[in-house]
Specification:
Layout: H1 3-19, H2 25-36, H3 40-52, E1 56-61, E2 64-69, H4 79-115, H5 119-145, H6 152-184, H7 191-198
Antiparallel strand pairs: 1-2
Helix pairs in contact: 1-3, 2-3
Length: 213
């Protein structure tokens, strides 16, 4: 057997003994191809040779050959050993679950830290906020020092005048609407055509509404 064939056979033999479960040649090829760069034909020949030499076992199911490790090389396992293995498996599974949960928590914390600001970024933002606050203070002081403030009495007067104008607006709009409706009773065309003909623009045309009182 050449050196390269010997290496391939050693890799496959070690893999089957480590996994200790049945595999087809296709399974072994798929599992070892990426890591060891084994070709499918080389895998098939190596496994057939290992079986001929008695280093692994071969079973034929229909048209498919299944290979597995020679079980005689492993020591017999009694019930006590099986129970101990089951216990170890259970403990390791619990440990894996705990570690998985811990990894998820650490991953979440890492994402939060990546999204948070660095110390330098926080310092820069604090300076920006201080500058913004300083600007607001300056504006406030300017407003406070102004001499043209509107007194409550003046504000009340303006609101009362507005109420008067709004009432007059509503009154005139109602009168205009009544007059237009009276004309439309004998007008042969639609209201829209009438308004276009006389050149009247309504509040709705100008998108104007009554202010809230």
């Amino acid at each position: 057997m050449s050196k390269s064939k010997s290496v391939r056979a050693s890799v496959i033999l070690a893999y089957l003994n480590e996994k200790n479960r049945p595999y087809s040649a296709q399974d072994v090829f798929c599992n070892l191809q990426k890591q060891h760069g084994l070709g499918k034909t080389a895998v098939v020949k190596a496994m057939e040779l290992l079986a001929q030499e008695g280093k692994i076992k071969e079973k034929i199911y229909g048209k498919q050959k299944i290979y597995f490790a020679d079980q005689s090389q492993f020591r017999d396992v009694n019930d006590a050993d099986l129970k101990a293995m089951d216990k170890q498996i259970s403990e390791l599974s619990a440990e894996v679950q705990t570690l998985t949960q811990s990894c998820k928590q650490l991953d979440t914390e890492l994402k939060e830290l990546n999204c948070s600001l660095t110390t330098e970024e926080m310092r820069a933002e604090i300076q920006e906020l201080k500058a913004e606050c300083s600007g607001y203070r300056a504006r406030l002081e300017k407003i406070k020092s102004a001499t043209n403030h509107v007194t409550p009495e003046e504000k009340e007067k303006v609101y009362k005048e507005r109420d008067v104008y709004v009432k007059e607006w509503k009154k005139r709009k109602r009168l205009a609407s009544d007059m237009m409706n009276a004309i439309l009773e004998g007008y042969p065309k639609s209201k829209k055509e009438f308004l276009e003909e006389v050149g009247v623009e309504t509040d709705e045309d100008c998108k104007v509404v009554f202010p809230n009182t």
